[in-house]
Amino acid sequence: MTISIKQMRYAVAVARSGHFGRAAEACSVSQPALSQQILALEAVCGTQLFDRLKSGIRLTPFGREFVDLAQATIRSAESLEAFALARQGKPDRALRFGLISTVAPYLLPEIYPALSRDLPDLTFTLSENRTEALVAGLIDGSLDLALIGTDAPEHGPRLVSRPLFDDPFVLATSSGEPAGEPVSLASLAPERVLLLDEGHCFRDQTIAACRLDSDPGARTFAATSLSTIVELVANGQGVTLLPQIALRKEATNPRIAIHRLVSPGAGRLLSLVWREATPFGAMFEKIAEVIQGTWHQASIVSE
Predict the structure, then answer these.
(1) What is the tens place of the pLDDT at every residue in 206-255?
(2) What span, in angstroms and rounded, lies between the C-alpha atoms of 86 and 205?
(3) Residues with Cβ < 8 Å from 71, sequence gap 6 or more?
(4) pTM of the model
(5) Helices 5-17 and 61-86: crossing angle, nearest 10°?
């Protein structure tokens, strides 16, 4: 019995997430199907890849070495596939496109119709995740390109980062809360600034902009989405920074007031990222141009 690329992908996904259920979700399969493939893989190897613990999944020493080799094998298989498909000028499958969660719900309604219109020969499978997971997907070949709000890491395979546009931050308060205009970040009470939970790059950017204590134990609440934070702000539970791209969706509540920040303010640069070793670089550049142009037009209309 041989080891398949699919089994290797499943093993890498379990190692990355530390959980069979989350790995199955990331791989778009049922948990029983993924677990069965992992058991079959372990049978071929003659030993366990993972220790099953009450607190989650942990790689065995053999498993760590196996996953490292599996990632290298997957990358090689992806490169071979891309080399073969490059002669056609485009892939014969859907492009696997990942976006961070503080971008996906705000940008997709604008860019997805434009991509379908301007690049009709391409299809996409879309996923939403945190920056670390998206970059890991680019590195192990489970993603083709990703839209992130931080610099691409320099370690590992070389990644191309194509800047799209700046996304400045604004301050959101309850409508009944007095605030000067523009607002100085230094004037904010640190204990009142509401944050996303750990792992979100936007959380880290907010902490840096507001010079907050990054110790998670020092904060009593962290939200999983900007929508949750905005609802708390509307109820007077605190204040928060919001990226400008979120305003058309998150700032429609009349109980929310939006304030500009004192210059130089804060913000992020959104970028499209892909592996340098891809034959589809020119196509990804076109995708970046469509996204950039679409958002520019949408911004003009909203002004």
Answers:
(1) 888 887 765 555 555 678 788 999 999 999 898 999 999 999 888 888 99
(2) 38
(3) 12, 139, 140
(4) 0.70
(5) 130
Rg, Å, the chain Cα set: 22
**Helix (H/G/I), strand (E/B), else coil: 57:** strand
The gap from C-alpha 135 to its chain's centroid, in whole angstroms, comes to: 8
104's tokens: 């996906």
Cβ-proximal residues to 76 (8 Å cutoff; 6+ apart), any chain: none
* The token pair that represents 228 in the structure block: 């949750």
d(CA 288, CA 260): 28
Q: Which amino acid is at 223?
A: A
3-state secondary structure 232-248: HHHCCCCEEEEEHHHHH
237 token code pair: 């539970």
**CA-based nearest residue to 129, from 115, 146, 113, 151:** 146
- What integer is the mean pLDDT of 78-94? 71
Structural domains of the chain, ranges and CATH numbers in brackets? 5-84 (1.10.10.10), 90-165+268-302 (3.40.190.10), 167-267 (3.40.190.10)
